What does this fold into?
Amino acid sequence: MVRQHVNPLSRLHQSVEPLPPPAELFADPALPLHLDIGSARGRFLLAMAPLRPGRNHLGLEIRRPLVEAAEADRQREGLTNLRFLYGNANVNLPAWLALLPPGQLELVTLQFPDPWFKARHHKRRVLQPALLLAIASALAPGRELFLQSDVEGLITPMRQLVEASGAFEPAGPGECGPQVNPLPVATERERHVLAQGGPVHRSLYRRTRAPLPPLADLEARLEADGGGADNRQDVAPA
Ligand SMILES: C[S@@+](CC[C@H](N)C(=O)[O-])C[C@H]1O[C@@H](n2cnc3c(N)ncnc32)[C@H](O)[C@@H]1O
It folds into this structure.
């Protein structure tokens, strides 16, 4: 049985192996890269990769059985521009992203991350200031970060964090919004939420040329704004 949630702060998921470099992952490692954080069973990228043969796609997921099942599907389908890796985004990505050739990272998607509703669990949420800065450092101007959630109390602090960095501009409502998904494939969670008639909150951001603040400054800005990614507002599960 696959666990519903794992605690990314547990010792098991803190002492993960480094991710292999992109040169070891794809048939053509020089292609632009789409990184999907929290790729779960992988159906989103298994559908995206054939639609975008000119891009590599990497799904990073902390639940190992899901990674193994997604990788088995990928191999069966012979997709060489796609890989799924086990890892903890907060532990693995800062160092891995820093090694990417400049300009290679084209798109980062973070879709329906675990909400961790209780205030004392907010630090388990994946989009923390250090990860946002690592993503922003690896994205060249014009490259994109796409966020989705059905939980307003989660998308709000994610947006506050991105905007507090001062390094992104949001796409207009014609490009992305509750009724407009800029991507051609819905994730598993997205399909489930839409089938239930639930809301989907979406934000597409483009990296600007603005320099990034030091981590301590970003955290101080969030604190001054009321908490940001780790805000103290508690949200009851629906
Ligand atoms: C609610 S699911 C959404 C899955 C998929 N993105 C979708 O929209 O259908 C969130 C996923 O993120 C994974 N996850 C949570 N924390 C993570 C972390 N620190 N690093 C990598 N994956 C993580 C979870 O195991 C889970 O599969």
